[in-house]
Amino acid sequence: MTQSRRFESLDGWLAWLQTLHPKQIDMSLDRVRGVMAALGIADPPYRVVTVAGTNGKGSCVAMLEGIYRAAGYAVGAFTSPHLIAFNERIRFDGSDLEDEALIELFSLIDAARGELTLSYFEASAVAAMLHFARAGADVGLLEVGMGGRLDAVNAVDADAALIVSIDLDHMDWLGPDRDIIGREKAGIVRRGRPVIVADRDPPDGLFDEIGRRGGNASTIGVDFSAEVQGDQFSYRQADQGSRLFPCPAFGGRIQLDNAAAAIAVVDAMQEALPVADEAIVTGLSTAKLRGRFQRVMVDGVEWIFDVAHNPASAALFCESLAGLRPVLRTVAVFGAMSDKDLDAVIEPFVSVVDTWLVGGIDSDRGAKPEDLASQLQRLGARDVSVYPDVVAAARAVRAVPTDRVLVFGSFYTVGPAMNVVGLY
User: Fold this and answer.
1) 79, 295, 348, 410: which has the fewest C-beta neighbours closer than 10 Å?
2) CATH architecture type of domain 294-420
3) What are the tens digits of pLDDT across the range 367-380?
4) Are 147 and 187 in contact (CB under 8 A)?
């Protein structure tokens, strides 16, 4: 049966979805659940792993995707935001969905929703879960967009939950401190099912809420751990022997904790989705994630792309940089959202960066480059130049003598800059 279409292009659908619901962010599950019920996917026919956290969600999804694919499973992955193309948000068996598949999904959702309206993110999440069901996924990996309890992906019951980290971000929506934010993230937990906690300093509120919801928690540093051994790491669960795995192929030191968390999820799901250690080795070795401490050489200059956009991720990015060989001159291409704690994001880099090229980003929440420049100068940054957008800033790098270029501050900074240097 051919589904009638409101639009014939993906761009048309995406532009319309930006306006369908009166609020860009509307923390509620009722409308999503209503549409999913109408589509017949309220109870997904595949195993679900839901991943929440302030930082590290995308890394964990990438590693789990690599592991489960290496084990022979059909794997769907939903992540956000995207760097360049919306298609990146929904992957199946390692490939981004094509425009035609997305157009069909949005047409089906439009026909099923009746009077219900969905936000752009909610429609994206429903499209992912619908595609996984129709394509015969064995497991769906769902990355929370914001928080957990009221995020669209929490409309389905997770077979396992992973809470990667808890830091101060989206505070206007989630709460003023880590304790309250931790409770929100624990909203993805389901009674009697495993929840893996990969935060090494978890707030009490997180465990209070996990206990209230009846989840079976395993915590890094208590129930499982990881230690570097050369280019491998030793993974150990409580009361069990250690197992050796390769260090992840991307990112810095923090990825070791993310890898350990991914293995803990796989171990917790062994009965439903058996995985041999050989598949874990292959999955960790082949997992890829764009824009997370991604290093490339362009015309003899090292470029490092990182979507670090909040204080915790910026600190980790700076820590990873400290482990690299020193260079004579470092340039930063920087753009950011105005609603972040930008002082805390910028400060670690003031002594590291010699020249700042600041540009605007393509988002209603984007900080004006002139405001960013003033903020940088107030914090003591040297040699700050302003450009209308990050594309212009990235292009201007060619005229600046440098040994290393850092591109960070937002997904909306990294994606366009990658495009400028031909990585997309």
Assistant:
1) 295
2) Alpha-Beta Complex (3.90)
3) 999 999 999 999 99
4) yes
Q: Which residue has the higher pLDDT, 165 or 367?
A: 367
Query: Roughly how many angstroms between the first and final C-alpha of the chain, as a whole number?
Result: 36
Does pLDDT of 321 surpass 80? yes
Residue boundaries of the structural domains of the chain: 10-286, 294-420
Model pTM score: 0.87
Question: Distance between CA atoms of 263 and 37, rounded to whole angstroms?
Answer: 32
Residue with tokens 């495993």: 194
CATH 3.40.1190.10 fits 10-286, yes or no: yes
Q: Which residues contact 207 (CB under 8 A, 6 or more apart)?
A: 217
Residue type (1 letter), 206: L
